[in-house]
Amino acid sequence: MNLDLKNIKKSDNLKKQVTVFSLKYMTAIILAIAMYTYVPFSFNGLNIPYLIGFVISVGVLTLRYKELDNRIIVYSFLILLVMIFSIILNMKSIFLRDMLFSIALYVYSIICGLAIYITIKSWSRDLFSKTMMVFCLIILVGSIVEIITPFKNITLAFTSLFPNPILNIDILRDIQIAGFYRPRFFTSETSHAVAGLLVFLCSWFITTKSQYRIIIYLFLLTLGFIIFRSPTIFLGIPLMFLSLLLLLTTNKSEKRKYTKALSILFFVISSFVILGVGLFALDAVMAERSQVKIDQSYLVRIVAAADIIGKVIAERPLFGFGIGAHGDAKELIIQSFVDSGIREESVFNNFDTKINSLLASSILYLGLVGSLIYFVIMVLLANRASGVNGLILTGMIFVFGSVNGAMYSPKFYLYFFFLAAAIKIVSMKGKLHDNIN
Fold first, then answer.
1. What count of other Cβ atoms lies within 10 Å of the Cβ of residue 322?
2. Residue 150 included in any domain
3. Residue pLDDT, tens place only, 206-227
4. What range does the domain containing 349 cover?
5. In this structure, is residue 143 part of a structural domain?
6. Lowest mean pLDDT segment, chosen from 88-92, 124-128, 414-418, 428-432
7. Residues 4-13: pLDDT tens digits?
8. 435 belongs to a structural domain
9. Overall number of domains in the chain
10. pTM (2 decimals)?
11. Does the residue 432 lie in any domain?
12. Of 398, 426, 402, 397, nearest to 414 (Cα)?
């Protein structure tokens, strides 16, 4: 009888351990993979990954709601109110349905973001940093395999799920300009794979205790540049600076190490600038010789974004067009792209997805006043979620915002809460400045 009771208790303990493992680790891993791939697979108009992500996230929040910080919920709700207010000011819009959909997407995004935040921040520091390194290596090694083997047929089959009518043209351009096929590794495009790599690499840099974190980070960043040949990889430099600022300013007595780290960073920035200018100049020459249109990402993300900001300030400076009201701003957006030197036919059918700038999209949707209120709340939210100065995390999000302007999308808030959880893992244990070299 006693033996049976012991066996029952062991069985119950095992079930509890499996449940805890599933909630604590597998949920975070599934959401992290979803954040990286962002797959839009749908069935009869129903987006399956969104549905799965929502069910998982609601389940996590239901079971672990006591772990939520009330202020995080309040700040998230205040952002929602800012978005709703922008709709109220534009109630006459014929695109009101799109605006309401944006609100629903924001709520979904926050739910998924909070779920990944709760599950990750309870991880141990060592386990999380090792997991992030595994993710980085999987992306880098997998991308190399994608380049040199028929494995690319599998990844391209995945990429074809995304709406990209010029995928074959993009591949041809990559081969003729860069000299080889640029991997997408289970994302819609190369820059998205790079952005995912940078999230995981930055999270590793923040949480690792390795004395060689800077050397390893720079080595992997350089390897990523060689593999992907995407300008997005250069975002790793400001991310490294912000991570060092996060790690080093928490202990002001570490001035010697702080100076050493900044000196190394200055050298790296100089090296990357020289290397980048040389390689992209070579790309321009190759593009001219092969008569292939050169990559217009610079025009889209910087020149056109600046033009959109200028036009919105001139037309609707205070509160913009309203969240998600890209339909009302269609002519303005397309004209900004055309004025920036981008072919009109390349943006006409998908103009709403071309705004790859957080600053441009926030001013377009919320105006100057609305954007100011939005970013103040974001800083407060970042401060509460990360446990350190919210300006640093907000700065990181602005870095990613230079290639992702969907300010109400799941990926945006998954990035935000993923990095917030990484910082929280370290900050809540009071060891943010350990082993800085």
1. 30
2. yes
3. 999 888 888 899 889 989 988 8
4. 2-427
5. yes
6. 428-432
7. 544 445 444 5
8. no
9. 1
10. 0.82
11. no
12. 397
